[in-house]
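Work Package 3 (structural annotation) set out to generate three-dimensional models for the target panel prioritized at the project kickoff. During this period the team completed the workflow that converts sequence records into discrete structure tokens, so that structures can be stored uniformly alongside our sequence database. As a representative example, we reproduce one entry of 305 residues exactly as it appears in the project archive.
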Amino acid sequence: MSKHSIGIIGMGWVGSSVAISILQRGLCQELLINDVRSEIAEGEAMDLNHGSSFYPACDVYAADIEEMVHCHAIVVTAGRGGRPEETRLDLLKDNIAIAQSISQKLAGFQGLLIIVANPADVLTYYYQQFTGLPAHRVIGTGTMLDTARLREMVGTHFTIDPRSIHAYAIGEHGDSQLVLWSQATIGGLALRKWPGWEPTLESDIAEKVRRAAGEIIRRKGATNHAIGLVTATLLKWLLRGERRVIAVSSVLPPHLGLGEVALSLPSVVSSDGVMEVLKLRMESDEEARLKVSAEVLRTAIASVR
């Protein structure tokens, strides 16, 4: 690993957005890209290299998955995309077979494995199982995107920059997710005490966050730009060892009492992966909903064993 290198498996809408976001941030000196359609990967490599005058120096190559085992991090976007009115869990049967095939080609990989393909939580669990990597090195983007959507929507409502909104969506990256309204703040002030806040906004905004992907897919066929930015930012914080607290998906430690499952909770991430999953203080209804979300995912995991 003499050069800082990143691999991307799957060069559809999402993979290409991840690639350009990585390049614009200057996260690596070598970017290896792969797609089951080899000509797609070759064409994307050519296209991206032609823009090399406009991003920090990086060589982009089309590569086999086996060639990526030296990479510091590999991003997996490969899988069938969602269709209108389809849940992320509906993708499971098709994408679990793809996960097993990819994992077999990653023998010897010791870097960070970032799972973007859906259903992200179930695939995070199975990529960890299939590859045998330590749980803290297999990270799903999970509700990092849902959290970004949440902050944008709250910020838009109050005309406040979303970076000043501190609130999390947790649990499944899917229909059973929940928003931790009890812990949400703006500039240190509890959101529920912010002038103009009304309780009805909680259910309205949470539902819009849950439905956001479906609304985009219905209009343009896929979601790609925001998740590309999310993934590149996650990689930046990981590779720089910034010890950020963010909502990402990982296989949970037993002491959290949610069973053998991967889902999103605020976690400390650094260059070695997920360093700590935080045990949160929640209201009783939030705890109950998180347990429901965990059970939804455990059922999905068990359905393909």
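The radius of gyration is 19 Å.
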